[in-house]
Amino acid sequence: MPTDILTAASPVAPPPPADGNPLYLVDGSGFIFRAYHALPPLSRPDGTPVNAVMGFTNMLMRLLAELKAEAVAVIFDSKRINFRNEFYPDYKAHRPDPPEDLRPQFALIREAVEAFSLPCIELEGYEADDLIATYARQARALGRPVTIVSSDKDLMQLVGDGIRMLDPMKNRLIGPDEVFEKFGVAPEKVVDVQALAGDSVDNVPGVPGIGVKTAAQLITEYGSLEVLLERAAEIKQAGRRQKLIDNADMARISKRLVQLEENAPVPVPVEALKVREPDVNRLLSWLGVQGFRSIIAKVKAEIAEDGTLADGAAISAAAGTGGGEQGLRDLRAALDGRSYAPPAAAPDAREDAHIPRPATVEYILVDTEEALAAWVAEGLEAGVVALDTETDGLTPMRANLVGISLATRPGRACYIPVAHIDPSTPKDGAGGLDFGDAAPPPRQIQAARALEILRPLLEHPGVLKVGHNIKFDWQMFAKNGIKVDPIDDTMLRSYVIGGGRHGHGMDELAQRHLGITCITYDEVTGTGKARVTFDRVPLDKATSYAAEDADITLRLWHVLRHDVLADRMVTVYETIDRPLIRVVADMEMEGVLVDRQVLRELSSDFAKKMVEFEADIQKLAGREFNVGSPKQLGEILFDEMKLSGSKKSSKTGAWSTDSSVLEELADLGIPIAQKVLDWRQFQKLKSTYTDTLGEQINPVTGRVHTSFALAATSTGRLSSTDPNLQNIPIRTEEGRKIRRAFVAAPGHRIMSVDYSQIELRIVAEMAGIPALQQAFRDGIDIHAMTASQVFNVPLDQMTSEIRRRAKAINFGIIYGISSFGLSRQLGIAPGEAGAFIKAYFERFPELQAYMEKTKAEAREHGFVRTLLGRKCWIPGIQEKGARKAYAERQAINAPIQGTAADIIKRAMIRLPGALADAGLKARMLLQVHDELLFEVPDAEVEATSTLVRAVMEGAADIGIPLVAEAGTGASWAEAH
């Protein structure tokens, strides 16, 4: 168990005002989630998760030590449903359920407050904020000053008249000036601003298209929300005027949602909110049950002779607080949910960071139920186990379970075979088994029995199951009726630290972090024609290989969990990458229905088109040749037709005829080049999709099940393989036709929901471009606005051609488009295209400044960051020439594309719970970059569309509203 996460001794705030006994109201619910995300998964001796409990305990002790207050109350939310849901059922309805390993910690955190003899307050039907508001009002009525310990913006409406806030994230006091800085109005007007702007996090609707800045301007001008709504018809801007008129009732409802209740029936009188000396025996007993040995030792060291704790400084020492600026930075990091790296000078802070180097290695074959039961008991006691599955294939929906390996501590692992056959058993001609007189299967545990014995371990909420690419293993167990939980993934821990920097396969990581060369799959299964499936690998070889996999995974986990912490990537890992595993696993297993007949018809049509193009090409060439042969094509174009624009390969002597060469020729008006490009397009569509998708339909489910790689890109984007459904061309009519084959089951519709211009919104925010930011807030056509700004054309004189040029620049700029690339895209001269780009940068200089700043950061650090904190490593950024230019374009685009990827991942994580809570049966099928695809019952289309768009739009607050658009149809083509 690691030691305390806090090492700060600097006061969190100046002394309170002297007019009366100050009351400190602690937002306990806010502390819980910051504590949870500040520490990696930890379990107490009985296996109960306690990372949030430990973090919360340290925060509480530190506050007591530094505040030295006589009156403190810790206040919690009771349940998600409260009185606001009575008049607006959708309030907070889209919020996901708490993580599974956090749920059992809520009660323990309340026990922590009681162990310190502090008032622990909650009230059913009310939120913590309502109780804080009520206690603050009551204390002020008694003339007492109040400090609210929280960074929650919703509490800022209470600031003023002796009430202040203490932001524990930034270690600063919040008074009226700070509130004005945040909202643009005084505290008493905050509610009116929030009512207009809404809050996507809490599902407060507000008025569409009005952000905080605009809301503050309106409230300042009209004085109050009610006056504004009464006089909405006077507003000059037609769009804004109509929105206010149409949404007046929703604005009033929003005000009721955000206004805190100051007259809640408090369960404990304000006079009773006092700090009492904790019962030391009770406190130590409680700490002992949690397994917090380091805290216990420090508490004992500070116990006074009379058996009580010494003064506040003693509590500070017990909490592990040290001195200096580093300690303060660590406190802030813990409180705001970022990771914390224990200082190297603290010897006990490295207890669990030590990587065990076992003197001996035990890899054991488990082939009896009694032996397996003993391993299960050992795993339950360990609290953390690594696991791996061996199968007879690489596609989870088609593969069969062959064996399972477990590791309970570094150097100790086992292999449990469940479906091996004797290697000498011959196969019949169809690939099935023909036992005949062959040897019987090896001794092993029958699969169903092995899984039932393993179930208590695999499903135990207090035992962490670690895998390397655990999504595959999770699916193999899910197919057999076992939902493995909680889970962790060493591949994704490596990825969150070094996405794009190196590979994340287990063999590479074992060499990189442990200096171990693993047994390879080829060594046990063979290669080429001699390769056998794993069910035919002899048990001695299978045990060595499979048990080593589990052992190495556990050893890597010990390394990487501390690396993620030290690298300050805990929040990204715990809130995005880890929770996404099960969401994507379920999505893959769901699959998407494909109509074979549509594929057959498309294949036939494409084949006819290819024949027509071949005839045209050969006519233009003057003779017959194999159009699919690059060598023959090169001879036709550059030897016989004497065209220029290509070079011969130094190795083969053949002319290059890749797409770039042909596109240049086509741009010059060479008909044969365009014909070959068209032929190649149909050939690729036919061979990659219409001919092969039918073969990839699962015979059991009747669906295609793609696989999404979670750690394959440098930006955090998911990538689809086997088959790749993210690469279906959509810019051509023929490519779009392929989506007609992806259909809904009877009684259902396909629903496509995608983000509107999300990358442009992100770049407007990241680059800080006020004109673009305001355009998005006001719901203006961004391409028309850009065209107007860059080309000096009034909006009422805008043409589709001018808008098209602006759109090409808008999207091209963020991908580092050159004047040559833009000229080809728009069909204009490179000089003219260059002038467009120059004019764009002159109008939006912030964008060029952002680009230069981002490139400089990449050169300095080797990586760039997304808005949500993900690191995107940029290989080649220190090199020269073309590779450096490519890396610089990557550096500019990666934070933008990566932020979009993080946002849609957050939406994906929240959607299953939101749909279930709403009683909706829609199933998520695919993710294609900024788009999510669902299969929705006919009767639930409207409700599902509303909910999904709300969740996607509320997935992140980037300063600019996110907009999601939905479409439905019988097929993917109709829906998008």
Concise structural overview:
By secondary structure, the protein is of the alpha/beta class. The protein is built from 38 helices and 23 strands.
Task: List the topology elements.
Blueprint: E1 23-27, H1 28-38, H2 51-67, E2 72-75, H3 84-87, H4 105-115, E3 120-121, H5 128-141, E4 146-149, E5 163-167, E6 172-174, H6 176-183, H7 190-197, H8 212-222, H9 225-230, H10 238-246, H11 248-258, H12 280-290, H13 293-301, H14 312-318, H15 324-335, E7 362-365, H16 369-382, E8 384-391, E9 401-409, E10 412-417, H17 447-458, E11 464-467, H18 470-479, E12 487-489, H19 490-498, H20 506-514, H21 521-525, H22 539-566, H23 570-590, E13 592-594, H24 596-621, H25 630-640, H26 659-667, H27 671-690, E14 703-704, E15 707-709, E16 719-721, H28 733-738, E17 742-743, E18 748-755, H29 758-766, H30 770-777, H31 782-791, H32 800-813, H33 819-826, H34 830-843, H35 845-861, E19 863-865, E20 871-873, H36 881-917, E21 923-928, E22 931-937, H37 941-953, E23 964-969, H38 972-975
Parallel strand pairs: 1-2, 1-4, 2-3, 4-5, 7-10, 8-11, 11-12
Antiparallel strand pairs: 5-6, 8-9, 9-10, 13-14, 13-17, 15-16, 18-22, 18-23, 19-20, 21-22
Helix pairs in contact: 1-2, 2-4, 2-14, 7-8, 7-11, 13-14, 16-17, 18-23, 19-22, 20-22, 23-36, 24-27, 26-27, 29-36, 31-32, 31-34, 33-34, 34-35, 35-36, 36-37
